[in-house]
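INPUT
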Amino acid sequence: MTAPSQPASPPQEGQQPLLALDKLSLGFGGLRALADLDLQVRDREIVSMIGPNGAGKSTVFNVITGIYRPTAGDVRFAGGSIVGRPPHIIARHGIARTFQSLRLFMNMSVLENVLAATYGSTRASPVESVLRLPRHRREERQNRVLAHDILAFFGQRLAGYRWDQPAYSLSYANRRRLEIARALATKPKLLLLDEPAAGMNPTETHEITELIGRLRDELDLTILVIEHDMHVVAGCSDRVLALDHGVKIAEGGFDTVASHPAVVEAYLGRDPEALAAEPGGPGGSPTQGGTKDR
Ligand SMILES: Nc1ncnc2c1ncn2[C@@H]1O[C@H](COP(=O)(O)OP(=O)(O)O)[C@@H](O)[C@H]1O
Ligand SMILES: [Mg+2]
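OUTPUT
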């Protein structure tokens, strides 16, 4: 099992978590999407969420980012409740996410995609922008520097000549990288990654695992990641949370959670063919997991 390069410091007595979900519940009509979900994520921790399709993982992200309002429970970020705040305000608090289905501007260049994501945090008024007053011009310069720095973080993958290419010309893996770059452009403290390795080959999957570690080690980010690929989960997580039918069925280290009987059963019960095709399943050696709803 690959250990994260620099695990977060162990929990300190009285240390406040950066993110706390407190008895979160959400129903869609008769469907229980989340039930009494508790989760605490500390500063600079990498926590993975696993579970079969439909378990409620993306719904957790939608509640944290203000897209869905929970039926009950609380979401606290840096000590304050953020439930009921609109998504753009939550983003300004320092929470950014990527989507399971990518949301890039396909006809815009790589650089423009990242620049567009920086504008949510600009302070210049529309009048200042239209008249290109000093504050607007200063912010535009700063955003360019920021976008360049962010793209440089991805090394050769999003480097140089690729900046001016339209997003549609990128490989699928590079589109996923660009989606992460856009999330970084809002200067988050907490990054939510929804299936970052979906559709990637083993080499790309290995790279994304390393990238997640670097995002924490070099950019001091706290990361909550939804992932089906057990190589990624094993390789980057300080802690793993397993969900099924909106309920937490296990939480702890990768080995403990992946071999937990409730987790094995959740995968077996739902997708026996996929499990048979992947010796070891979620409980054995890391496997190249699949997701049905890319
Ligand atoms: N907007 C919605 N309206 C109705 N049902 C939804 C909505 N969003 C999610 N669901 C349902 O909630 C459950 C959890 O979905 P989701 O969080 O996307 O699962 P996961 O990401 O774990 O695959 C599923 O049964 C899904 O169909
Ligand atoms: Mg999902």
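end of record. Residues 28, 31, 33, 51, 53-59 surround adenosine-5'-diphosphate (ligand 1) (CB under 6 Å).
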